[in-house]
Amino acid sequence: MEATAQRAAPLRGIKVLDLSRVLAGPLAGQVLGDLGADVVKVERPGQGDDTRSWGPPYLNNASGEHRDAAAYFLCANRNKRSVTIDMAQPEGQALIRQLALEADVVLENFKLGGLARYGLDAPSLLALNPRLVYCSITGFGQDGPYAARAGYDFLIQGMGGLMSVTGAAEGEPGAGPQKVGVALTDVMTGLYATIAIQAALAERARSGLGQHVDLALLDVQIAGLANQASNYLAGGVLPGRMGNSHPNIVPYQDFPTADGDMILAIGNDGQFAKFCAVAGHPEWSADERFATNPQRVANRVVLIRQLRQVTITRDTADWIAALEAAGVPCGPINRIDQVFADPHVRARGLRIEVEHPTLGAVPLVANPMRLAASPVDYRLAPPTLGQHTDEVLREWLRLDEAQLAGLRQRAIL
């Protein structure tokens, strides 16, 4: 196949002013940066994004110092330039307004009304720059009875229903609601914010006008309930915790093996028949209790008990080799070190390294979007605090050395 001609990253030329911190907002900024946007991250002088100190673990430099390089910060802040500005001072607010005049996008995740006192809220900045796409990320949105509340991922996983369907079933060991092992609501919100921002930019190309984008963690979490929400809305079925089982598909869960565990993800009756043949029990697929998925769901307890008596007889690797050869979806339950050692993960290049000014080669997780002609662009490692202050203010605002020195003397930068 002829190689695709490479073009510039899709968002090259778009300027993003990132006023966000922690995870949801910074992740959105990182994705926009990966897609080619010039993302300027505004941080507090001397402190910066809270996650710079959220460790250990930290990534140390050659002298064993980590400064502001917590692993948490590194996960969501590549392809950005860091500028320090004291937003609490009127002169700092004026600088940010000037940057917003040059920007295409403002991204922020302050509490409701938190930026209004600085004149940096959506109405204020859209009045100055009507072409601006201003994206606000909050826990509960810009309106509604909970709008003024602070929102945190763990809290939202509980309020938004995710924890009610996560964890072992009632009566099983360790039963009780569980949060997901990563801040999944924050991650989903960052991705939805990225989609919404790009949609608003596309609409601006037609109308010539920007708009305010309102992203709420609670909204996103409820949208992320997917089939579980639909099961309730359409069928009146109140989903509950089922451990690793699936509410609508059987067998679709973990099973014990002779040396550990494996996952079966059988999605149709044909795959079930193939599994039964490999397992040495072809009669199961002809049994009226198990022949079709609705029947397997209805007789879940009996079937799973029988399957477990068989899966325990062979090693995980043996099962996976035999089932993959038969076209039955299955896999191991990997630790994260095993994930990055997996030959397919290595072949897909999901571990990357980006050169950092003080830390050397920083290991990061690759962006999973594969654009054949205009690929993501890993230009910058997560920045040191204020690393690009002079560079950006010279470039975006055309400030000279005397002006920069004066701002530093007045503790604005």
UniProtKB/TrEMBL annotation:
For this chain, one GO molecular function annotation is:
CoA-transferase activity
Q: Which keywords has UniProt assigned to this entry?
A: Transferase
Whether Nuclease counts among this entry's keywords is no
Q: Name it.
A: CoA transferase
Please tell me the species this chain comes from: Rugamonas brunnea
